[in-house]
Amino acid sequence: MNNYSIDVEVSEVGPRDGLQSISPILPTEAKKCWISALAAAGVPEVEVGSFVPAKVLPQLADTAELVEHARGIEGLRVAVLAPNFRGAQDAIRAGAHKITIPLSVSETHSLKNVRRTHAQMLEEVSRIAGLIRETPENQRPDFEGGLSTAFGCTLEGPVAPERVVQLAEALMQAGCDEVGLSDTTGYGTPDQVRDLTRAVWRAVGRDRLTGIHLHNTRGQGLANVVAALDVGLRTIDASMGGIGGCPFAPGASGNIVTEDLVFLLEGMGYRTGINMERLLEARQVLRDSLPEEIELYGFTPEAGLPKGFRYA
Amino acid sequence: MNNYSIDVEVSEVGPRDGLQSISPILPTEAKKCWISALAAAGVPEVEVGSFVPAKVLPQLADTAELVEHARGIEGLRVAVLAPNFRGAQDAIRAGAHKITIPLSVSETHSLKNVRRTHAQMLEEVSRIAGLIRETPENQRPDFEGGLSTAFGCTLEGPVAPERVVQLAEALMQAGCDEVGLSDTTGYGTPDQVRDLTRAVWRAVGRDRLTGIHLHNTRGQGLANVVAALDVGLRTIDASMGGIGGCPFAPGASGNIVTEDLVFLLEGMGYRTGINMERLLEARQVLRDSLPEEIELYGFTPEAGLPKGFRYA
After folding, report:
1. Are A63 and A97 in contact (CB under 8 A)?
2. Domain A3-303's class?
3. Contacts of B193 (CB under 8 A, 6+ apart)
4. Cα of B130 to nearest chain A Cα, Å
5. Which residues contact B274 (CB under 8 A, 6 or more apart)?
6. Cα-Cα end-to-end distance for chain B
7. DSSP-assigned beta bridge partners for residue B78
């Protein structure tokens, strides 16, 4: 599957955002099998891990090895998270294609989460951008600033769109190639998705914000995707089986479910390059490697594709 | 709550579409309590039952009594299903404000479901329309033709939009006041919702199609609602706790979940007239009256409203 035939890019964040909230550590080989199965299904981008200290998130301690494995898969774009300069160094050394540094729009959340103010985080972004500039061109990763809690914060409540716009500008000035919007708390509504995207576009340019990371905490995930597509965003994060985030009750998952997202996109006429049957095989690979008590979500895997279903 | 302050009408179909797939029969008093609690939360319309023979659906045998009860609640619009002339007679006698007769666009499904061809169903619609004309004006219900399997059929597969349009025209000619679109199988996509609504509008007029009945079988329910709102539909069916339809696995429900729908609508700036806290009280009334093994779905009830949430 060649990239030119893709209308919307699905970025699978399960190996990072999904696994980071699961305590039993998956063997590295199991993660590799899953990543390979995702790629074999046509998933164009996988966020394979995060370069955080192993003692903070032991589940993600093998991120460098996963980057190396994923880089060996032709056509796959290998994304990672790096919360700081040290992590970015490791990410560049490992050879990631894309590095995302999360910046929480809620400073309260930022202080609680990474113990850094906005100013300190922006300083870190500048240092990473400098490092990337010094990296030989053929090894230089894309560098994204991920605006988390952009749609509201469980600590601060509503987040002013002006604050999101200011921080998007600051991230670009500090040296990011692009910014991303992240509904960390599942507060977002379709109107917010449209309005906030347009506001950030006006500040940093349309080509500097192309993707969105949505959660399904209040069941609004795919509704927000429809708004994201309407406004013109073309990279959507999702997690296989909806793993990750803050699971509550039956059906409550953190991330939006990759399988349901692909059905939505193909059904709407957007080519994803992803084959549903092989995606369900990748789901089985994940299922087989996860402890039984970890539930996989998703409606389409259970209901199956509609009779007579056609890809976009 | 006065109707003039409502932008989008939520029609609660749980007492009909939800309960009809639950075998343990709920006491009539429990149903009355639930309907009253729904109305107390501000739900403007409730489909309280279906006038089918008691031996076919014993759960709905008390529909006449529920209509009488619901008619006693000021401001509540009382809707019922009637699959045939006999049912419509009973519905008029009971005093329903609105009668919906379902017509399956898939004739295969129609024959299997009600053992009637399209021609036979349209003949039934004509007879009911005649009966309504003979009914004293102040007791005359609204009469809707519900186009089920409009987005695809589990037996026939894809359903041609032209067929939906033809049947919408035929229903209007046979004497319906309006038509409704129903995604019985959960096959629908946001594009289909927009395109099909516009196609039917061109044929019968915009004021003759204002509502939609969506299922969440493949997790696309609220995504389809966003499309329905975008195109301009203003009555959305939903079921408390997502009961009804064809439940599969964790999170899979038939109908879209009223609680999540109200959060979506209010979050998007559409006034529903519904109070979320009281809606959750109504959910508790339902929970208390349902057998334990019946699961209630919905994300918002578990996650709670966002900090600083404001109604539209």
Report:
1. no
2. alpha beta
3. B151, B181, B212, B214, B224, B227, B228, B231
4. 38
5. B10, B41, B42, B43, B262, B266
6. 14
7. B46
Phi and psi at A3, nearest 5°, equal: -60, -30
pLDDT given for residue A21 in this prediction: 85
Which ipTM did the prediction report?
0.91
Chain B, residues 200-259, CB within 8 A of chain A, namely 216-220, 222-223, 225-227, 230, 246, 248-253, 257
Q: Which residues share a beta bridge with A211? A: A235
Tens digit of each residue's pLDDT (9 = 90 or more) over B127-159: 999 999 999 999 999 999 999 999 999 899 999
Closest CA to B272 of B44, B31, B12, B32: B44
**Which chain B residue lies closest to A304 (C-alpha atoms)?**
B218
Q: Among A78, A81, A89, which residue's Cα sits nearest to residue A39? A: A78
Which residues in B237-275 are b (16+ Cβ under 10 Å) and which e? Answer: bbbbbbbbbbbbebbbbbbbbbbbbbbbbbbbebebbbb
Q: From CA A206, how far away is CA A201, in angstroms rounded?
A: 5
Residues B188, B214 contacting (CB under 8 angstroms): yes
B278 contacts B231 by C-beta, under 8 angstroms: no
- Tell me the angle at which helices B276-289 and B258-267 cross, rounded to the nearest 10 degrees: 170
CA pair distance A288, A24, nearest whole angstrom: 14
Amino acid at A170: A
**Contact status, residue A60 vs residue A16, Cβ threshold 8 Å:** yes
Q: Contact at 8 Å (CB) between B10 and B39?
A: no
For chain B, give every domain's residue range.
3-303
Q: What local confidence, expressed as pLDDT, does residue B250 receive? A: 41
Concatenated DSSP letters of B149-203: TTT-BTTTBS--HHHHHHHHHHHHHTT-SEEEEE-TTS---HHHHHHHHHHHHHH
A295/B191 Cβ within 8 A: no
Report the C-alpha gap between A214 and A225 in whole angstroms.
Answer: 8
Do A201 and A209 touch, CB atoms closer than 8 A?
A: yes
Start-to-end CA span in chain A (Å)? 14
CA of B225 to nearest chain A CA: how many angstroms apart? 8
Alpha carbon B199 to its chain's center: 21
Record the pTM.
Answer: 0.94
Q: What average pLDDT does this structure show over B200-224? A: 96
Say which DSSP state A206 is in: G
Pull the structure tokens for residue A132: 């990337």
